[in-house]
Amino acid sequence: MTVDLSEQYAVPPGSIKEYRYAVYFDGLALWQEKNPVHRANIAHRLAELMTTLAQMEAEEASKYREQCVLPNEAA
Question: Which residues does 8 contact at the CB level (< 8 Å), separation at least 6?
Fold first, then answer.
């Protein structure tokens, strides 16, 4: 029996929304951190999250453009 774990979370794991929240909160953590070693680690994690988020946002933008262009071409 398989269980759908995505229903157990407020934000679906691996979703664009999850990455947006992670970037937001890691950005806050970076500003608040005093230890330079910890800041460097947070900055590296933030860079990885931002790269993934940028790719996901580009995919969303591509889907949006396709939805906007196709109805206009039919007219």
Answer: none
In angstroms, rounded to a whole number, what is the distance separating the alpha carbons of residues 74 and 71?
5
Question: What would the pLDDT profile of 17-75 be if each residue is shown by its tens digit?
Answer: 999 999 999 999 999 999 999 999 999 999 999 999 999 999 999 999 888 876 655 55
> What type of residue sits at position 7?
E
Assigned token pair, 43: 């900055």
With CA atoms as reference, report the closest residue to 53 among 65, 64, 45: 45
CA gap 74, 43 in Å, rounded: 46
Residues 6+ apart with CB under 8 A from 29: 42
**CB–CB of 27/46 below 8 Å?**
yes
